[in-house]
Amino acid sequence: xxxxxxxxxxxxxxxxxxxxxxxxxxxxxxxxxxxxxxxxxxxxxxxxxxxxxxxxxxxxxxxxxxxxxxxxxxxxxxxxxxxxxxxxxxxxxxxxxxxxxxxxxxxxxxxxxxxxxxxxxxxxxxxxxxxxxxxxxxxxxxxxxxxxxxxxxxxxxxxxxxxxxxxxxxxxxxxxxxxxxxxxxxxxxxxxxxxxxxxxxxxxxxxxxxxxxxxxxxxxxxxxxxxxxxxxxxxxxxxxxxxxxxx
Length: 247
What we know:
single chain, alpha/beta, TIM Barrel, 10 helices, globular
């Protein structure tokens, strides 16, 4: 089944409003007539400015995190309701940095994904194993456990999954295309067992030191439907070639 390639850029804690606008202008010049879905996830402070800069383009706006409640006394949090209001189409949840630095749990990822779907946003659900888990032969056990906990009971039509081996994020190390494909295939097989035929329509992205030099080989794998790009998404000179390699 054909799945439209999807490349999402996670800017993490980078870019002032002015820098964000400039990067969007550069991407709009570079990404013309590419048959790839593209989204960018700027920091919260730049969401509205990026939305304005994206007007008239096909690039989608994404957020890097959310909270599962819509409104209330939750100082410092941003809800799916507010993300939809500012123009977001996607939101990343469960990124390994959220899990390791801020104590995010599988249950919390599930709550956030469910809340996003309730408000018409698509969650990009991140899963991935640590180096010691891979070396112990537990990579699939860990990843599929995260998948099951995050997506239990949810409709998958609008869900995107991102497999990001923790040991490859920001380290310069990348899973081999064959290793990445093995995990992607296992994720799809698991989703087929738990959710049925819709699993063939779910896009599964790879993340972890994706760059122009390795993107084409990774994206050529049958179950890798795109990429969640970190550091290489901060410059048009590195992000645009990744998008074009998926076209």
